[in-house]
Amino acid sequence: MSQENMSNDNVESPTEDPTDDDMLLETDVTSGLEEGTQGSRTTHERTIVEAKDVNVWYNQDQALRDITMQVPENKVTAMIGPSGCGKSTFLRCINRMNDMIDAARVEGELYLGEKNVYDDDVDPVALRRRVGMVFQKPNPFPKSIYDNVAYGLNIQDIGGDHDAIVEESLKRAALWDEVKDQLDESGLDLSGGQQQRLCIARAIAPDPEVILMDEPASALDPVATSKIEDLIDELAEDYTVIIVTHNMQQAARISDKTAVFLTGGELVEFGDTKKIFENPDNERVEDYITGKFG
Ligand SMILES: Nc1ncnc2c1ncn2[C@@H]1O[C@H](COP(=O)(O)OP(=O)(O)O)[C@@H](O)[C@H]1O
Ligand SMILES: [Mg+2]
């Protein structure tokens, strides 16, 4: 989708029928619009994840500063920036994985749809059913391929026809044809690229709304990387994908929106990927994109 959008540039086109835009605005993207950088007339994407002044500390050290951004639904949003600038920390805010790090303290508001995921009544386990995650290093469990994919269904007590869900998830992860005759074999016997697609199948089986990916291809060879990139493109038809990558070409290839984090845990610029890479507003972003540092 990214290539298409980048060439047609139709996602943000102000010439599109304003009625449709208004209807979308009525329904979903109203919260926080006043803080957005785009005027309400030109914003016609639904926001699914919204951060408002998110700050994170590890003990005394601040890792993120006043992060405010709106992630559009069913798009690919990339987060780039030099090592240590807080990309993984931000990703872990979205599904409250930072809860598991004793030193971490999160302040601010983080909405999934209408709900602040940091409200007292939010169950992090239920949240993680709605927000799946894929990590840098493929981490299948020492279980069969089938049981890996069905894992979330079992621990979350999700009913339905598990055989059908496992098959569908493996198909969506572009792995089914390669493993359909060996579902009982260990997930650990697959190649690295297959393991990562297995982890993606595991993440999508509970039918989340958002899939977080933290450098999902950086441990893979170029062929496996390319398969993952194609897959991300397809996933964005049904899911919202938020991906951290240190590979700027990858961000440019696969994402619709790009957030640039820079040292000190600041979100320096967030916008359409095409604009970020071709004509960023911020000079530090320009320097980073053009390789002057990072
Ligand atoms: N579990 C942790 N405990 C303490 N400090 C951490 C922890 N995780 C990350 N940090 C620190 O927070 C900052 C941001 O890290 P991180 O989010 O991993 O950045 P990135 O993903 O952009 O490389 C870094 O200074 C890092 O050392
Ligand atoms: Mg990281």
Describe this structure in words.
Helices cover 36% and strands 23% of the residues. The protein is α/β, with parallel strands linked by helices. The protein is globular, with a radius of gyration of 19 Å. Bound molecules: adenosine-5'-diphosphate and magnesium ion (MG).
What is the gist of this entry?
The protein is α/β, with parallel strands linked by helices and 294 residues long.
Q: How many helix segments?
A: 12
The largest β sheet comes out as: 6 strands, mixed
CATH class designation: Alpha Beta
Judging from the principal axes of the Cα atoms, what is the shape? globular
State the share of residues found in helices, binned by percent.
Answer: 25-40%
Looking at this structure, what is the CATH superfamily? P-loop containing nucleotide triphosphate hydrolases
The unique ligands bound to this protein are: adenosine-5'-diphosphate, magnesium ion
Give me the strand/helix succession. HHEEEHEEHEHHHHEHEHEEHH
Architecture, according to CATH?
3-Layer(aba) Sandwich
Arithmetic mean pLDDT: 87
Rg estimate, integer Å: 19 Å
The assigned structural class equals alpha/beta
Uncertain residue ranges: 1-43
> How many distinct folded domains?
1
How far do the termini sit from each other?
Answer: 28 Å
Estimate the strand proportion: 15-25%
Q: For the largest beta sheet, what order do the strands appear in spatially?
A: 6-7-8-3-9-10
Number of strands: 10
CATH topology: Rossmann fold
